[in-house]
Amino acid sequence: MQRLHEVAIGLPLILLLVTASPTNASTLIWGTDVWTWANPPAYNPQGPGFYYNETLTSHVNITVTGWVYLIAHNGIGQTVYIVECSLTLAPYATGSCADVVLLPKGNTYQASIFAVSASGIAISNSTSVTFQGNR
């Protein structure tokens, strides 16, 4: 009977703690509208290769660190290059990072660029670019 009494008291306390949590305390971030593209990815032919500068805007009230991936495919759809840059955005801030690309000259590539959270969940829409290799 003592055990039943302890359970009867403990269960409402647990429910109270769960339901009393602040609504903005969650660090679970997901959804392709967490970050949006402030500008299309910008091609910049600097250095031994080139890079795409990606500028995104945060739409959440907490700081989020994510990774912006560029995944390049050759003319027959094979993945030939994956590169990422990290980006940390304060609440409602805009920021940029750059993905450096080093691919052979004479070939055309199609790439998808998107952002994921530290846990690997999509936090932006994907955008596409087409470019020529320059190495």
Q: Helix share of residues?
A: 10-25%
Instruction: Provide the CATH top-level class.
Output: Mainly Beta
Number of domains: 1
Structural class: mainly beta
Q: Can you give the mean pLDDT?
A: 82
Shape: elongated
Sequence stretches where pLDDT stays below 50 over 5 or more residues: 7-27
Largest sheet: 4 strands, antiparallel
Rg is: 22 Å
Task: Give the CATH architecture.
Answer: Sandwich
Strand content: 35-45%
Would you kindly provide a brief summary of this structure?
By secondary structure, this protein is mainly beta. Helices cover 13% and strands 44% of the residues.
Please, could you describe this protein's structure?
With 135 residues, the chain is mainly beta. It has a single domain (28-132), classed as Immunoglobulin-like. The chain is 13% helix and 44% strand. It has one helix at residues 2-19; strands at 35-37, 42-44, 50-58, 64-73, 79-89, 94-101, 108-117, 127-132. Strands 1, 2, 3 and 6 form a four-stranded antiparallel beta sheet that branches. A hairpin with a 5-residue loop joins strand 2 (42-44) and strand 3. The longest helix is centred in the first third of the chain and has 18 residues, at 2-19. The radius of gyration is 22 Å and the shape is elongated. Mean pLDDT is 82; it is low at 7-27.
